[in-house]
Amino acid sequence: MTKNININPFNEELPSEYADRLGIYYTKQVTAKHKKDNGQFFTPIPIARLMASYCKEGDTTVKILDPGCGTAILTCTLIEHLVNTKINIEVIELVVYETDECLVPFSTRVLEYIKSWLKKRDIILNYVLNQYDFILDNYKALQKNYRSELFDFIISNPPYFKLAKDDVKTIAAKELVSGQPNIYSIFMGIAAKLLADRGELIFITPRSFASGNYFKAFRELFFNTVQIDTIHLFNSRKDTFNRDSVLQETVIIKAIKESIDPNKRVLVSSSNGIIDISEPVIKHFNSSELIDLSSREKILHLPTSDKEESILNLVSSWENFLSDFNIKISTGPVVSFRSKQFLQDNYENGTVFLAPLFWLHNVGKMILEWPKEFKDKEKYIRLENASKSILIPNKNYIFLRRFSTKDDKSRLIAAPYFCNYIKSDFIGVENKVNYIYRKNGHLNRDEMVGLCALLNSELFDTYFQIFNGNVNVSATELREMRLPPLDDIIRIGNRIILSNDYSMANVNTIINEIYELEAIMN
After folding, report:
1. How many CB atoms neighbour CB 440 within 10 A?
2. CA 148, CA 432: separation in Å to the nearest integer?
3. How far apart are CA 472 and CA 249, in angstroms?
4. Per-domain residue ranges for the chain?
5. Res 451: pLDDT
6. Is residue 442 pLDDT above 80, yes or no?
7. In whole angstroms, how far apart are CA 69 and each of 76, 193, 250?
8. What is the third-level CATH fold of 15-304?
9. Superfamily covering domain 324-521
10. How far apart are alpha carbons 387 and 267 in whole angstroms?
11. pLDDT digit string (tens) for 113-138?
């Protein structure tokens, strides 16, 4: 790409609008692969202005950081907001980072323009455009007692992509890593450490950091460093970055560097996308209602409607977890590509010992469909000494899909498996299926049906989506989900068994009656 950019600002054009025009032009000049490799998803102006509007504080001199500036649209909207609302600003000290050499000339043009725009308003802008990696330049801020330059405002739409475990950035920011990290969470974690007292951080990211084991270390550091102040959730996976064709559940989070107060009131708003961003649904919660900082996982809950708020209140009142009932959850041990030599599609009688193999596509809501023809999904696994380590004993289980597909209306899809389903001492469970069991003993039929019904219910699916923003259903999250008393679970199971109706209509009717949810669900 040429570095000669012949696109000049219009007369009296706002810097943010100029940055947006350059961003649109740049997007047309580079390939989709280039943008994906660099994790580039440019922020539309309405979203940038919403993010900037969250900034409240301000002094005569303010220090701003944008860790991945792109064409600097977030920097521009933030400065425009400060100029319009803080009449006493005299000096702005700005630090931005951009590593894409194709993009740096665009960043420079915008920064020079906003400097001249501010000069006309008698405001001095001193800026530094760093062309090296933000993480590698600042990871030492994660270490105790490290002193570095601190900022009043940090605003960012960071890159989004997974990092390898041996990536130099992953190793540098090990305090934030508990699995395979996504680079955006490392940006957020380091930024939190770079805030001055009462400093404000505003990020737009995927909402996947709210739960899941891969983000556990990040949540531990982040939520014990800054206080959540404002959250905006985009309900549509398509509309937030639609010109970049991004399918991602996205959230804006504002946090402040101040003492952590569980009674702090947090504003939670939501919109489907950009089209209704000026008319969001708004709710308020105590910080402790959204995140329990005494918990192991520190999962962030994001209810956005009266229905979700009522369900969160109900589930939060429960005191039990799977472990309280001596019930465990594990991931299927059969990794198909590593076990090809044991997999078989046709049954052989007398010559080969076989066990049934259960895949994700066998698991439906309250129903297990096996055998079932599916391309490249063998129905059996050989029962040999070499395969024993990846088989499990044949007893009562609940099978739960680890992933939902784009066609699934629910995130949680579970089926009961009864040990008399097939005559075999062992069974195989493929790796994309979780299985729930009692380690020393059996799940009783009424327990199985009741728990399986709860997992499949509209109640639990709604609750799960309050904190889970992706298609994964991890065992870690399910271990942390609160459950009603075991007597309630058995009661649900018995009612379904006696009715001999395992349909989801009957399941939801029974559960909604027991918890008096009919009005909420309707």
Report:
1. 6
2. 44
3. 13
4. 15-304, 324-521
5. 98
6. yes
7. 10, 19, 18
8. Rossmann fold (3.40.50)
9. DNA methylase specificity domains (3.90.220.20)
10. 53
11. 999 999 999 999 999 999 999 999 99
